[in-house]
Amino acid sequence: MAEKDVIIKEVIKYAGYSDFKNLYSYAHDWIKGEKYSVTEDQYVEKVKGNSKEVEVYWTASKKITDYFKSELNIKWRILGMEDVEVEVAGKKTKMNKFAEIKIEIKGVLIHDYSNQWNRTPQTNFLKGLYHKYIIPERKIKMEEKIEEDVKDFKEEIKAFLELTGKK
């Protein structure tokens, strides 16, 4: 069975104005630009009066080697999203007002994702040797790359919200 190591967890919290559609597209495009394949595992939208609550779960994965795979688990939780008109540079623009946006990003390193090293007792033994003596340095580099991807994604989303939104 594939082993999963959670490398890093980050959270973005924001309240104010922005454009959800553009934020969603920007986040998706950034992940695709980093060569991850993205699947939307869940999208739930609840309407409560004039506002909406939205929950989205993404799983983004990227094959690093035949043995390692990188995975980003991204959970969006949006509370109190309302459609509003805001004046930006003298022009009225449609945007969204958010009571709260919370985006949780978890970076995971998956070992032996195709489960090739657990098929027999011999390959399982070799896997133990491989982990102990051959790949520790490579594993550290993989973990650093995943940590960098998660932090870069967080900073990109924060910058997008700062540029397009107002508190």
Structural notes for this entry:
By secondary structure, the protein is α+β, with helices and mostly antiparallel strands. The chain has one domain (3-164). The chain has three helices and five strands, in the order βαββββαα. It has helices spanning 20-33, 121-134, 136-164, and strands spanning 3-18, 37-48, 51-63, 68-88, 91-111. Helix 1 (20-33) packs antiparallel against helix 3. The mean pLDDT is 89.
Separation of the first and last Cα atoms: 46 Å
Overall residue-averaged pLDDT value: 89
Q: Estimate percent helicity.
A: 25-40%
User: How large is the radius of gyration?
Assistant: 20 Å
Runs in which pLDDT lies below 50 for 5 or more consecutive residues are none
Short note summarizing the structure:
With 167 residues, the protein is an alpha+beta fold. The protein has helices spanning 20-33, 121-134, 136-164; strands at 3-18, 37-48, 51-63, 68-88, 91-111. A 5-stranded antiparallel β-sheet has the order 1-5-4-3-2, covered by helices on one side.
